Prior knowledge:
CATH topology of the largest domain: Rna Polymerase Sigma Factor, Chain: A
CATH architecture of the largest domain: Orthogonal Bundle
Low-confidence stretches: 1-20
Strand content: under 5%
Structural class: mainly alpha
Number of helices: 10
CATH class of the largest domain: Mainly Alpha
Distance between the termini: 42 Å
CATH superfamily of the largest domain: RNA polymerase sigma factor, region 2, helix turn helix motif
Shape: elongated
Number of domains: 2
Helix content: 55-70%
Mean pLDDT: 82
Radius of gyration: 19 Å
Amino acid sequence: MQIFFFNFCNRWLAETDYYNMFNEKEVVSSILKGDFRAFELLVKQYEKLVFFVVNRMVQHLQDKEDICQEVFIKVHQSLSKFQFQSKLATWIARIAYLTAVDHVKKSKVARQADYPENIDHYHFSEDSPESELVKKDTAAYVNLLITQMPLQYRTVLTLYHLNEFTCPEIEQITGIPEGTVKSHLFRARKLLKEKIERDLKN
């Protein structure tokens, strides 16, 4: 199933210069006045951000698509409450994060590895057949390793490195204290580095 909002985002891209620059306040103001094309622009601007957040947290493709659609429905419904006290991207990322977390907690297939009893003592498990197959592709292998990490590690890595949020912004998005965000980033990157170095020696 294709995400409803994403299907028609590109229809007006070539028509005017309306989409050449993105001004948060102007776009939000237009949306609140009922301009649906402005909302399409917002979706186009932030669909990758939402997908990156959801993709790291949710396993099944169908669930990912449904959650992304749900996120943008929530954004549209709640936009009148946005007061520009943060970047629009930060606010949208928080909605995506909370929506994905809610799904993970309700899911009957939530992995125990997502919520280890002591996250600071997390270590990678033995290599799986899948990991052996992708080791030659470094980018794919690193991505696979990240998907095996606890939810908080996956989330902070994605927000910091893929979406380039600062640690204070990640605290706003996730509710995880800034000091803990920094600790998770340090620990997650250390685990990845050590795992890859071990593999190179073998």
